[in-house]
Amino acid sequence: MDAAAEPCGVLLVDKDRGPTSHDVVDRVRRLCGTRRVGHAGTLDPMATGLLILLVGKATKASAQLMSQDKTYEADLTLGVTTDSQDADGEVRETRPVPPLTEEQIRAAMARMLGDQYQTPPMHSARKVGGVPLYKLAHKGQEIPREPRFIRVESMDLLCWEPPVLRLRTRCSKGTYVRTLGHDLAQALGPGGHLTALRRTASGALRVEDAMTLEALGRLPRAELLARLIPAAQAAPSEGPA
């Protein structure tokens, strides 16, 4: 890469719990020395895992990369519901958790597969009238939201240690996994909320090939830029940048 040229490519980041996706973008802008950095699908502050950043002209591949199915692993704690459907929210209700078998849980998961419409949660960055829903939620407001078409390709039970079940799901873009968790917990009876969420894949891109922001920050700039994946390789339907 010409030292004078603008950096260009796709950077895979393993996001830690806490920072927003925008926080990560800002840090990578400084590391790469360019303002032209975006992402191909946000992660909530509580969520960890694969965050795909687009640097320079690779931002043109945004639509192709965002359209890929995503894979997540999540911990769902039954018996406690929150207003945000995850651990960052305020507790709304607690209920006893009945005895549940793995077969019962898998049967409930199977009923959640396929094409469907999902209503975005109030605690989300989706905008209505130019205002993010979470800002309205923080004011105690709840407004009608237009359901979005999604597809849940698979949902598997990884572990069941009451009251926490760990699941893996593969779903279409725009799916709120905490809402899937909320709906599953309601179907099982006691309700619940996500206490952990990790994106492990987006299309063919895997979190195993990503680095944490802290580790990227320790790399010499030349090594950091060498990790940029050509857009045509990361998003095969995208032509050369």
Write the layout of secondary structure elements.
Blueprint: E1 9-15, H1 21-32, E2 37-39, E3 48-55, H2 62-66, E4 70-78, E5 80-82, E6 91-94, H3 102-110, E7 114-118, E8 127-128, E9 131-132, H4 133-138, E10 148-161, E11 164-171, H5 177-188, E12 192-202, E13 205-206, H6 213-218, H7 221-226, H8 231-234
Parallel strand pairs: 3-12
Antiparallel strand pairs: 1-3, 2-3, 4-11, 4-12, 5-6, 7-10, 8-9, 10-11, 12-13
Give structural notes.
The protein is α+β, with helices and mostly antiparallel strands and 241 residues long. The protein has helices at 21-32, 62-66, 102-110, 133-138, 177-188, 213-218, 221-226, 231-234, and strands spanning 9-15, 37-39, 48-55, 70-78, 80-82, 91-94, 114-118, 127-128, 131-132, 148-161, 164-171, 192-202, 205-206. A hairpin with an 8-residue loop joins strand 2 and strand 3 (48-55). The longest helix has 12 residues, at 21-32. It starts with 8 loop residues before the first strand and ends in a 7-residue tail after the last helix.
